[in-house]
């Protein structure tokens, strides 16, 4: 490291040395190492905890290079953008501009910096194309838009650096796939560009190091060496505690209302508190509950992804100016935003993953040499154990970030169309470019051809759409878009985040309704399916207010202030993370080992002790199955600890098997820890009398035919299909000239799914859906690992009544749609009512 | 949940249980496939076929699967074979857009030709296809009067007695013990009837939706829900939604 200190005058131009000197600082070793190695031509990955000066490190190569270049004289020929900075969050791009402008203006550097996000006005975007800034701060979607432009080559030909922030969170998603393809295209426009990845700690840095370099070169001499690594470790150990209160810890639920007075006390005791929750729903509720007891009128704000962008910017600005005492936030605030003097992080609900916890705690006190302070607030008794496990993990530095997956095919289809919009492409050249991106390095030529065919005409065996093709092969053998409308449609529908249809929520005055237009304030967006359940006068919680639903007008939901204290609550589908495999294992271990219980609160310890008396506690590698009667039903509870997604899949498959075995199952419910199935026949008795074998029931072969059969009618697969259909461009989110009636333009993807299943089961989009589902929604990989693990270790405990351990999952039984075959059964009963009525 | 694609793919000749009803004094059978049969007139009625819906979207750049027409025609063949009617009435929105019948591939044209052979075929014009049909057997009409019944595409608020219409794609939801099931349905109060959509690529509109208001006498309204091989008849008051 000393080398770099000695090389300071060579590495840093005079204004930098002067600025550091005036501040009484010296550049950190990792900043200099990253600078030196980038300048010498290496692609680099910097892994560092929050507060280590990651941002400045990432920009030093660009800033020093631009400083040496100096201001371009007026009248110079066009120069393209010098540095691209890509962040996963719009807010982060805005925040970085603020943070970066400070040293740049203090040093008086001749560097122009601008951001470009979905919120950037059209005029500014247009100007950026003709007169680009030196450093452009943007998002993966905006990059894709720029690359699909005819001017892309001119715009990017002078590109020297691409800085990728929060890389660990980007690469595991479809946005990361899109970005990797964009990066491959950037390399073609600017072959000499270097990448600088910035990341929090990850389980496998090699994944990211490969991601940052091309996997094939035009000379085809194999993949480039992985990016160089600068790894900053250390920092003070965080001070994390689990909140203890005298109040009863609830059996189930995710809101932790019992702890709200205690959380409020902590807010009062600290300067600025960040309160993280896992879902928007929790955020809404917690925010409202805090204000209910906010006798000191402390400035407490709310921040989540459904809120209006303007509202969010306001909160962010107030936060950075230290005007707030607390912010309740979801993952929108999860990443790298360095704001204000946060001295406490409260995490309500279990963090669901050790890495996520470490990341969120990093928000507090972002000087790395002082310990961060955090309090975990478990929302129910299982979460107490989960919090304890996460706490242990954070101390021992365990990491459980997901691996970088294989590139999604729907994203690839979107990219192929985008590339045709930019300029006619040669299929072979584009294939080489795409396979240089690490997520797509294993893509076969055959699969690529099918994707191109899909983009052109839908890829159907029945070739009736040739005359409507979106892209066509020219005489020279290059693919080009059929007409300008196709490019326009592409631009309107780009992106990989598919939300359920959302309507803008507008607050109006009650007497204005029906007469006056839309004077009121926009509060954000809420999902359409939720609103469809409401009738006028219903109340719900949104943007921290209790609102009265007044009606839907065109694409807006009109609401008035309600004065009700008992609102219906938005039931957001997204946002709940499944328990990580690592934490699940830790919770199982804790459950099995009473010597570790002393760290748990009394009530949780008592609960486990009673469970041991009334039933049993499974060993770490065992699967406990309890059966008991309740009401006029029989229940089976399996304690799998594999997360809600895997449990739901398991529930679907087990009910099929139980149906065949004659148990007449009626339904099931899953949480992160367990699965409960109920039936008309006595499953416990069937197991005892050996009419039902648990070994067979939980055999791994359920992932064969049963899985296939279930996928045929699975609702979850349909939801996955909807995403693929939208991202791949089969279905449009928006159609030119049809914005007003957007809701009617869309066609039901469920119907399309059924058509494909029955007529073209190996269609490329079904293939894409199955791949997504296996890794994502269905968590099939994890389920398979569990079935293998518990083989021969399934223990049945027949009980007279519900056990203590079963209470949390039993409390989740509620309104869920029935699957498949049971549907006609429900219809029959409903129809029978009519007969009874007629006979009376 | 949409059964129609699965139905189209797996039509069996098994027995089905229709619901036998009266519309303005005329006897009719509600078939589980979503067709209405009038035995005294040997007349089969289907509504909202929305043929060539996939192609209509493809023309706008959305390449929906090109199999919907085939599947709908398979269902139609099955229900025609079941009753062998003298007359077939298709109650409008026969095609998903104005150009549908003109641009339909020849193979489907032939299928319709075979189905229509030896029968009278009436194409009522709908809002999606107001210009009528192109080069297909049968005649186009805006509405048809037959034995005290009037067949038109869009239900009218006035003159409701004896009206058989489509357009609204009615569906209904029933619930038991917190479980709910939604299906396409025939909706009738004895005076008039609104048909379920027959096309496989069609959505549904709940019977409680405001677009249905004012059409029926709710006290007498019954939803005949389409089950796999029977009709489930549920009073309006017992529906949820």
UniProtKB/TrEMBL annotation, chain A:
PROSITE patterns per UniProt: HELICASE_ATP_BIND_1 (PS51192), HELICASE_CTER (PS51194)
Keyword NADP found: no
InterPro entries hit by this protein: ATP-dep_Helicase (IPR052511), DEAD/DEAH_box_helicase_dom (IPR011545), DEXH_lig_assoc (IPR026362), Helicase_ATP-bd (IPR014001), Helicase_C-like (IPR001650), Lhr-like (IPR017170), Lhr-like_DEAD/DEAH_assoc (IPR013701), Lhr_WH_dom (IPR045628)
SMART domains: DEXDc, HELICc
Residue ranges that the Swiss-Prot or TrEMBL entry lists as coiled coil: none
UniProt superkingdom: Bacteria
Helicase ATP-binding domain ranges (all copies): 35-220
Molecular-function GO terms, alphabetical: ligase activity
Domain Helicase C-terminal: 259-409
Sequence segments annotated as region (Disordered): 111-134
One Pfam entry name: DEAD
Keywords: ATP-binding, DNA damage, DNA repair, DNA-binding, Helicase, Hydrolase, Isomerase, Ligase, Nucleotide-binding
Record PANTHER family: ATP-DEPENDENT HELICASE LHR-RELATED-RELATED, LARGE ATP-DEPENDENT HELICASE-RELATED PROTEIN
Family assignment from sequence similarity: Belongs to the Lhr helicase family. Lhr-Core subfamily.
Protein name: Ligase-associated DNA damage response DEXH box helicase
Lineage: Bacteria, Pseudomonadati, Pseudomonadota, Alphaproteobacteria, Hyphomicrobiales
From TrEMBL, chain B:
Keywords annotated in UniProt: Endonuclease, Hydrolase, Ligase, Nuclease
A molecular function (GO) term: hydrolase activity
Coiled coil residues, start to end: none
Keyword Ligase: yes
Enzyme class: hydrolase
EC number(s) on file: 3.1.-.-
Family matches, as Pfam families: Metallophos (PF00149)
Domain called Calcineurin-like phosphoesterase: residue spans: 44-134
Protein name stated in the entry: Ligase-associated DNA damage response endonuclease PdeM
């Amino acid at each position: 490291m000393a080398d770099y200190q000695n090389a300071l005058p060579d590495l840093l131009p005079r204004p930098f040395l002067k600025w550091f000197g005036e501040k009484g600082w010296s550049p950190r070793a990792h900043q200099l190492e990253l600078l030196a190695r980038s300048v010498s031509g290496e692609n680099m990955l910097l892994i560092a905890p929050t507060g280590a000066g990651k941002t400045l490190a990432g920009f030093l190569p660009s800033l020093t290079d631009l400083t040496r270049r100096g201001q371009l004289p007026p009248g110079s020929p066009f120069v393209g953008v010098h540095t691209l900075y890509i962040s996963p969050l719009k807010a982060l791009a805005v925040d970085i501009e603020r943070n970066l402008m400070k040293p740049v203006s203090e040093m008086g550097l001749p560097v122009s910096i601008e951001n470009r996000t979905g919120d950037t006005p059209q005029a500014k975007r247009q100007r950026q194309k003709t007169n680009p800034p030196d450093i452009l701060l943007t998002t993966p979607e905006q990059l894709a838009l720029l690359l699909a432009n005819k001017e892309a080559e001119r715009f990017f030909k002078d590109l020297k650096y691409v800085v990728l922030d929060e890389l660990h969170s980007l690469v595991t998603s479809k946005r990361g796939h899109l970005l990797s393809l964009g990066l491959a295209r950037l390399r073609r426009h600017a072959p000499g560009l270097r990448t600088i990845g910035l990341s929090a700690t990850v389980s496998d840095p090699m994944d990211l190091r490969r991601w940052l370099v091309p996997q094939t070169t035009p000379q085809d001499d194999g993949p480039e060496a992985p990016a160089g690594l600068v790894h900053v470790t250390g920092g003070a150990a965080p001070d994390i505690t689990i909140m203890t209160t005298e109040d009863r810890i609830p059996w189930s639920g995710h809101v932790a209302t019992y702890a709200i007075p205690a959380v409020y006390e902590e807010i009062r005791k600290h300067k600025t508190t960040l309160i993280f929750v896992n879902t928007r729903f929790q955020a809404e509720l917690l925010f409202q509950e805090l204000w209910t007891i906010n006798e000191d009128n402390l400035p407490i704000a709310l921040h989540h992804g459904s809120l209006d962008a303007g509202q969010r910017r306001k909160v962010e600005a107030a936060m950075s100016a230290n005007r707030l005492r607390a912010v309740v936030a979801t993952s929108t605030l999860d990443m790298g935003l360095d704001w204000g003097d946060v001295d406490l992080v409260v995490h309500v609900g279990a963090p669901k993953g050790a890495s996520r916890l470490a990341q969120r705690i990093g928000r507090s006190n972002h000087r790395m040499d002082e310990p961060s302070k955090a309090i975990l607030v478990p929302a129910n008794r299982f979460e107490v154990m989960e919090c304890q496990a996460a706490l242990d993990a954070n101390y021992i530095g365990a990491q459980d970030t997901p691996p970088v997956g294989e590139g999604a095919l729907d994203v690839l289809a979107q990219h192929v169309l985008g590339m045709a919009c930019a300029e006619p492409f040669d299929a072979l050249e584009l294939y080489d470019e795409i396979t240089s991106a690490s997520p797509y390095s294993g893509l076969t030529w055959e699969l690529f051809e099918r994707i191109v065919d899909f983009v052109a005409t839908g890829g159907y065996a029945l070739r009736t759409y040739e005359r409507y093709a979106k892209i066509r092969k020219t005489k020279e053998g290059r693919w080009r878009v059929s007409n300008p409308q196709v490019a326009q449609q592409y631009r309107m529908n780009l992106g990989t985040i598919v939300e359920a249809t959302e309507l803008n929520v507008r607050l109006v005055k009650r007497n204005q309704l029906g007469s006056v237009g839309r004077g009121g304030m926009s509060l954000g967006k809420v999902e359409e399916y939720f609103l469809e359940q409401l009738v006028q006068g219903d109340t719900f919680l949104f943007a921290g207010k209790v609102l009265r639903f007044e009606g839907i007008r065109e694409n807006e939901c009109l609401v008035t202030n309600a004065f009700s204290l008992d609102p219906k609550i938005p039931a957001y589908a997204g946002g709940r993370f499944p328990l990580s495999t690592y934490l699940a294992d830790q919770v199982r271990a804790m459950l099995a080992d009473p010597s570790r219980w002393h760290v748990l609160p009394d009530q949780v310890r008592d609960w486990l002790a009673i469970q041991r008396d009334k039933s049993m506690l499974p060993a770490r590698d065992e699967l406990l199955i309890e059966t008991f009667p309740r009401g006029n039903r029989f229940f089976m509870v399996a304690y799998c600890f594999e997360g809600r997604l895997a449990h739901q899949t398991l529930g679907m498959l087990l009910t099929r098997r139980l149906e065949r075995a004659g148990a007449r199952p009626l339904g099931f419910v899953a949480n992160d820890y367990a699965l409960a199935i109920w039936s008309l026949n006595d499953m416990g008795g069937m197991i005892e009398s050996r009419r039902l074998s648990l070994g067979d029931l939980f055999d791994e072969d359920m992932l064969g035919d049963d899985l296939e059969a279930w996928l045929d009618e699975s609702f979850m697969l349909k939801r996955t299909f909807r995403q693929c259909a939208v991202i791949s461009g089969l279905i449009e989110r928006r159609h030119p000239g049809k914005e007003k009636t957007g809701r009617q333009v869309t066609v039901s993807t469920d119907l399309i799914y059924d058509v494909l299943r029955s007529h073209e089961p190996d269609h490329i989009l079904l293939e894409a859906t199955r791949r997504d589902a296996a890794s994502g929604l269905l968590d099939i990989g994890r389920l398979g690992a569990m079935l293998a693990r518990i083989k021969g270790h399934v223990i049945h405990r027949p009980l007279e009544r519900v056990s203590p351990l079963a209470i949390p999952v039993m409390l989740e039984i509620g309104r869920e749609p029935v699957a498949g075959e049971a549907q006609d059964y429900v219809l029959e009963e409903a129809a029978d009512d009519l007969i009874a009525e007629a006979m009376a | 949940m949409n059964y129609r694609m699965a139905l189209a793919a797996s039509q069996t000749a098994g027995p089905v249980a229709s619901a036998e009803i009266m519309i303005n004094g005329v006897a009719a059978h509600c078939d589980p496939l979503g067709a209405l049969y009038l035995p005294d007139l040997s007349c089969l009625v289907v509504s909202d076929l929305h043929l060539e819906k996939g192609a209509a979207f493809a023309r706008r750049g959305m390449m929906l699967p090109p199999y919907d027409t085939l599947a709908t025609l398979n269902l139609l063949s099955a229900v025609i074979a079941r009753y062998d009617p003298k007359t077939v009435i298709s109650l409008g929105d026969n095609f998903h857009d104005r150009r549908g019948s003109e641009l339909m591939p020849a193979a489907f044209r032939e299928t319709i030709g075979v189905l229509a052979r030896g029968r009278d075929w009436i194409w009522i014009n709908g809002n999606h296809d107001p210009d009528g049909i192109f080069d297909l057997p049968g005649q186009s009409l805006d509405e048809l009067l037959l034995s005290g019944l009037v067949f038109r595409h869009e239900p009218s608020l006035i003159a409701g007695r004896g009206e058989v219409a489509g357009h609204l794609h009615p569906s209904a939801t029933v619930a038991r013990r917190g479980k709910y099931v939604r299906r396409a349905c025939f909706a009738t109060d004895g005076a008039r009837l609104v048909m379920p959509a027959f096309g496989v690529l069609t959505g549904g509109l709940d019977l409680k939706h405001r677009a249905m208001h004012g059409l029926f006498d709710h006290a007498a309204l019954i939803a005949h829900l389409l089950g796999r091989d029977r009709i489930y008849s549920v009073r309006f008051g017992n529906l949820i939604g």
